[in-house]
Structure formats: structure tokens, C-alpha cells
Write the C-alpha cells for this entry.
Amino acid sequence: MSRDGQKIDRRKFLKGAAVGAAAVSSTAISNAQDQESADHQHAPSDIALRVKALETVLTEKNLVDPSVLDEVVDRYENRIGPQNGAKVVAKAWVDSDYKARLLDDGTAAIGELDLLGTEGEHMVVVENTAEVHNLVVCTLCSCYPWPTLGLPPTWYKSSAFRARAVIEPRAVLREFGLEVSDETEIRVWDSTAEMRYLVLPRRPEGAEDMNESELADVVTRDSMIGVAIL
Amino acid sequence: MSRDGQKIDRRKFLKGAAVGAAAVSSTAISNAQDQESADHQHAPSDIALRVKALETVLTEKNLVDPSVLDEVVDRYENRIGPQNGAKVVAKAWVDSDYKARLLDDGTAAIGELDLLGTEGEHMVVVENTAEVHNLVVCTLCSCYPWPTLGLPPTWYKSSAFRARAVIEPRAVLREFGLEVSDETEIRVWDSTAEMRYLVLPRRPEGAEDMNESELADVVTRDSMIGVAIL
Amino acid sequence: MNSIHDMGGMHGFGPIVVEVDEPVFHEEWEGRAYALSIGWFPASQYKEWGGFRHNLEKIPPKDYLNMSYYERWFFVNEQKAMQLGLVTEEELNNGNADPNYLMPQLEPHPDSSLGPGRLDLEINAKFENGGVVRAKEINGRAHNRLPRYVRGKTGTIISDNGIYALQDTNEKDEQPYDDPQHVYTVRFSSEELWGNASHGNDFIYLDLWESYLEFA
Amino acid sequence: MNSIHDMGGMHGFGPIVVEVDEPVFHEEWEGRAYALSIGWFPASQYKEWGGFRHNLEKIPPKDYLNMSYYERWFFVNEQKAMQLGLVTEEELNNGNADPNYLMPQLEPHPDSSLGPGRLDLEINAKFENGGVVRAKEINGRAHNRLPRYVRGKTGTIISDNGIYALQDTNEKDEQPYDDPQHVYTVRFSSEELWGNASHGNDFIYLDLWESYLEFA
């Protein structure tokens, strides 16, 4: 939604100034959407050529195998994604023994489902309850549990999310449409070492009759990051 | 010296990477000089037109008097500058009573010379000695004693100076050619409120026979900021 | 607010680049933009520089770093003039005032009862020279003059500079100016501020309003 | 190092912008740049991601903010390949390997004796669950995983995650990997970190190596 060029007039800045949004179409200033869209869009026009050149030169020198690159792209575009984390969550919902193991030792329990891997070797699962809501971020870069959630969405990598999640998580969640009551404790997990975090969301009401596979279908990526509930 | 376009090859980045300098001519990356030159040069091409437009429209509405603007530009281009601070320093060197008043109450003593004014209403003068070297910065913006030193040079306003002066003043001074011994105490004055700082440098050796006016001629702007000695 | 303007202690900006024999202004527009900031101040509804600085700080970090110093100044003036309705985007694009545009009746400039500058008031000082104080954690979106690198840190009062109205603005960018306080110069050791990256003989001095400080 | 990558707690970046039904990669080059990072890792002389992250952090702040996520990744790979002499700028400009260019004989990849990941070692833990600790001020130019916003702050150990080699690099970008330590999860209150801007029911958790911590 942020990929179209925006022609935002100067007045928009004034309205958005309080949260730092800015826009003057006739100058170098960006508005917040422009700014965020930079996270996947700003690249100079020749970036595609440069990437191609590096891959080609390294390939011709036998330092890279392009079929390995094909496999990596295919893996994250088609095979590894939030559907993996959803399996973990659904199993925890229907199998209380598994849930206990998962919360006690996320790595071992996720390993049972063969869902460990790069950037997800050491997993910690944190449970949402009536009293506690969990939110995952990585302020220093964009650490994320690749094997269970795939590659992170642009917003997770954005400066705004990285900067704000630790200082004003409630304001951040509100932007995702999630109002957390003052009585609910919020735990923000800033991924600074090798542990990767997965939120175990609360089982939605009205899902009592679903089986494990049906439950997995209702688990969203955002609920496992902690910016949504189900 | 930083105003020419630089065609710096990719390898330069590698050498400079340890201090964060970067350059790839074929991409959006800037090298450190490019970056600093942005402090007076990056403006989009239409900035001159935009400034002219705002001045003209405000003038036509009688909200601005262009002759006042002429006067302000003339004041800082031709009348107010480091020569003012130099008078203060030279007088302190030859008049020990004045020096005592200056260090005790900079505002009053500089007021005696009629050198107070905007962004220099409240002055504090800090003295370099054999044991202490003083350095002035403003990390939050670029506060500077306009009436005594004029408008600040670009490097004083640069991100590099603002960021580094408080955490590694010795490395900063080294870049100005000033090696301060470990035994010398460095005092960094970060201008955060309405006080503006002027460094009273040590009187240079070999200047014993100079009169006040001759002394004023040897006092440099940089010595009154604290990035040089005389 | 905690934005990129609060850059004390950051790495990554490279060496200090010094221009020899630098002119006061590099281009004519720089001088006009600077003078405009002074010349239109009475009409700008800023009470003092605090409001102006807050607007500089609200420039998003990417833009802040992409803009030159005078470009930032000009930008916030341009924005402010439009925000007040004194000029329109169309007028700026055309380069001339529109004789048919009716400027809004602005509220009379809400003069501060105190104003900036040192105040001749009698207020008891909470701290005294030699006292050990800690800078508070003040992290709101409002404007203040307490850099992040000293928040939570302990230092020593070395002088009481007298009474000044607090320069902070609130989140709405208003500058109430009704909070006169002692302003102290506080000396912090580099070791306290920077730990392993410090030098034992480096000290950093900041002028801090009394409400930024607590007993350590 | 204290650069723009360490942005936890900053204001000014605007709202979170969510793209509905976002693809994994927006452009083909993003996928290739990402996969290249994985695919050339054995030849890259990085021991682990720490060295790669340090190079990301050394991108000057202005450029860091101007670049997209995958652009940063690609940029540091391109730089590293040239730095090692594996490719030349001319080759990249031409888009093909120069058959006459002799690649340097690189030192054999200096394998860590320990490697990344949880280590099966016996080391006494300095801290225990429930212990109150303070994060040190570590401000050098080297790479670490201790964000500025917790330095100097006091928190509580809630778990000991076992032994991991310290991921820090030194200033020369070397990653010795010979310093196995306990890594603890530490709980900090929002109040401790953010003072007036905090919420009494918010808590922030970080995984911190033992050498980042001291008894409070």
C-alpha cells in the first residue's frame, strides 16, 4: 500500500507533524509513508543490475552456486512461512503436554516438528494470557524466527517499529488495531542474542470444535509476532 | 574543500570503513566528505527559488521587511565575527582585573565591551590553563555565541562534531591537529541552555611585547571554540 | 523528544571535515533563509527559540540528515508560515502573494508572562554547589534540553546560573514559559557517561534546569 | 558501536506502515540479494552473523536510512567481496569475471574453536534467576548486542539460557569467538528505562551476555 508515489501537499505535513510525518512534494522531504516505503523501495535504479553483476561474477569464479540461490529464494517464497509457526501453535492448543514442553523448552518442542533452522536454532515461546500480552521486536537489526515465520514483513524491519516497540508498545499496538488495557501487562522481547521468539496467542473463542489442522488455518503471522490477537 | 563532487571508488570505503566513511560512486552511498558537505550543500536545486518565494510573499504581506533581512545578512557577513571575541580575549590578557571579572561574570565583562546580543545574552568564559583544556559544542542543535564569534562554521554544525565531541574529544582535537596529553583535563561544554561559552585561550609564547590590538589579531576563532591553541 | 537531533555520543558520522576560509554563507539563499528566520520571528507566533527548535527536531531523521543546516531552518519556517495560514502553497508555488487570499485573524501573540533570559526572581534553590545529582529519564515527545546521553547519569553541580523560565515545549508545541527555575551547570565524568570508551581525564558540562535533576 | 542501527526508543520515524498481502520479495533483485547473502557465506570469511551485522552498522546513518533493508544487505556483501579481493570494481562494472584477474590466496577461513550456537560447556554462572543486575556502559566502536537504551539500567534475571560464545566483534571487525559465556534474559521495567514516558505495566526483555552485566 505504500508503493505508489505519493503527491502529498505541504499541508499534510502540518497535520502529521506531531508524530513526525512530513511531506513537501517539491523538496527532498519525505512523508512517513515514503519513509517507510524506503524499506523496500528506495533502491537506486541500478540496484538490480548491481545484484546481477555480483551474482554473475561470483558464480563465474565458482564462489557461488546459482542453484543454491534458486533454492533459497524458493524456500522462503514457497515453503517456509507463518504456516510453520501456525502448526506449532495449533498443536499447543490441542495437546496440553506439548504446550507444556513448548513453553518449557521451545527449541526442543519445535524440534519435534522439525521446524528449527537458520535464525531459529534456539527458540523461546511466550504465551499470551488474560493478564499478559507479548510483543516481539529486534531493535538493533531485524532478528526474526525464520524457520517458523519465514522472512519478516517490511514493517517489522522498519525504523518506526524497531524504534517504537520498546518505548511505546501500546501506541504501536493501537496502530495495528489492538487496544491493550492498562491492566494487562505487556512484555516486549527485544531479540538481542541467538534466542528467537514466537508468541503463543490465545485460542480464539468459537474455535472449540476445530481440529488441529483447522486451528492452524486461523493462526496469523501477526498473532505470532504479537501485533494481533485472534 | 568539501564542495567538489567526489568520484571516490568503492575501495576507499574499505579503508575508511572503521570510522564509518563510505563511498560508492555508482550508488546512493555517500562518503564522509559528501556527508559533511550536506551541511551546506545538499539542498535541492530549487531551494533558492523557494527561499525567494517565501521572502517575497511575506514581504508583499508586510510580514517581513527585506531591508531588515539585508541588515541581518550584512551584520553577520561584515560586522559580527570572531574579531569581537578576539577583543575580549586580548583585553583579558593585558588587563588582569578585566580577566578576573570576565571569568567571574562573563556576561557583565563582555557587556562592558558592548558585545552581548542575540544568542549571546548570557556568556560564560572558560579559561585554558596548563592543566585544563576547554572545548565547546552543542549536541542538540548548534548553539554558539553569535555576538562574539559570529555564525558557526559548517563543521561546528556537522553531525560528526556534534556527535563525537562529548564522547571522544581527544580524537576530535587530534583531527584538528591538537594532541592533548593524557595528564591534561579536558572539559567539554555542551550548550544546552541559555548560557553561551567562549574559551579564553592561553596567551601564546613570543607575544610578550604585543599590545592589546596586536594580540587581538592573533586570536583565532578556533582557539575560542577550543579546537585550536595559539 | 528522542530523535536524530540528539546525536551526542553517536558513531558513524565520519571525520570532522573543515573547510578552509569558509564564507559566512555559501550561497545567497543561505543568508536570506537565515535572515528570514530572524526577520519574520515577530509574525511567527514562536514565543522563543524552543518552539523553533522543536520543529527542527520533528523533521524525520532521514530528512534531517539529508538536509543542510540552513535548509532545515528554511523548511521549518516555510511549514510554520503555511501552518499559520499566513501563506498558501499556491502562493509559494507562484512566488507572489495572492491579493484575494484573506489571511486568518491570528490570536494575539500570547506573550509569556516571563519571557526568556535570566529572571530577577527569588526562588529557593533545591541544589547547591558540590551537590551530587542525577539527571532524570525524560523521554516524552515534547521538546526539552536534556540529551539522552546524560539521562540517568550522576554528576556534580558546579554552579547555579540563576533563574530562567523552562524552555521546554509540550507535545502540542506550546511553550508555556511559566515555569521559572534555577539552571545549574553539572559536571559529569566521561567514565560515568561512556564507561569502557571513556577517558579518565575528560569531563562533560551541561546546563540543566532544576526539574531535570534529582538528588543522587 | 553507537550508530543509527541502535534505534530503540527513538521518536520521529512516524507511524507503522503495513502493506496488506505483502509478497516475500517485492522485486526479483531482493530475493537474489538475500539468497546471495546465504549462498556466498562460506566464501565471505565471516565467522558468523556478528561480522555481517557490524558491517551493516558501519553504514553511515544518512545512508543507512536512505537504503532499504535488502539494499543494505547487498551493499555490505558487495563491499566485503571487494575488500577480500574476490571481485574487482571493474568486474562488477562489466558484469563478468575477468579471466586474467588472479584472486588472492585468502588465509584459510579461521574457524572458531567454539562456533555459534549453544555450547555444551560447564561454566559457573555469575548470576542467578531473580538476581538484580545493571547493564554496563559499553560504548566503543566495536560491535555488541547491548542497545543504548538499557545501558546503565537495572533489571532482573529471569532465565539463564546457557552458554554461547560472545558474538561481539572487535574494532577491527574480527570476531574472536573464544569467549563462551552465560546468556541471561533480563527483565527491565518501562519505568526504569523511560521514566516519564513509561507505562507501569510494560516490561522489556533482552538476552544479554554475562560480560554485559554487573551486580546492581
In short: Helices of chain C lie at 28-39, 49-57, 61-66, 69-83, 89-94, 190-194.
